[in-house]
Structures are given as C-alpha cells and as structure tokens.
Amino acid sequence: MIALAFHAFTLGLILGCLFVRRGEPKRLSLALSALIIAWAGIAIVELVQGL
User: Fold this and answer.
1) What is the count of structural domains for the chain?
2) Mind listing the pLDDT tens digit for each residue in 4-35?
3) What residue numbers bound the domain in which 16 lies?
4) Considering the entire predicted model, what is its pTM?
5) 40 vs 1: CA distance, rounded Å
6) Closest CA to 18 of 4, 34, 6
7) Cα separation values, 25 from 1, 3, 15, 40, Å
8) CB-neighbour burial class of residue 26 (10 A; exposed 0-12, middle 13-18, buried 19+)
C-alpha cells in the first residue's frame, strides 16, 4: 500500500511540474489538487498501518 501511495504522489508531482511549465492557472489548480489527493492517500495508508 505504501508503494501505491508513493506512485500517486509521484504522479501528482509530475503532473504539477508539467502544468507549472505550461503556465496555465486552471491546470495549476488541478495539479495542486492532485498533490493534495496524493498526500491524503499517504496519510490514510499511514493511519491504516498504525491501527
């Protein structure tokens, strides 16, 4: 599960870099959303493993 969360985070990071390069504000907000979702995924995995 950690690998899945890591891949989600990496994908979000890559998308964020691509959107920032294009300089499109709407896309940037989508990229930030992807990063937030990835961080949430990691947090959920950490929480589940802690139980």
Assistant:
1) 1
2) 777 777 777 776 666 666 666 666 677 777 77
3) 2-50
4) 0.46
5) 13
6) 34
7) 32, 30, 13, 23
8) exposed
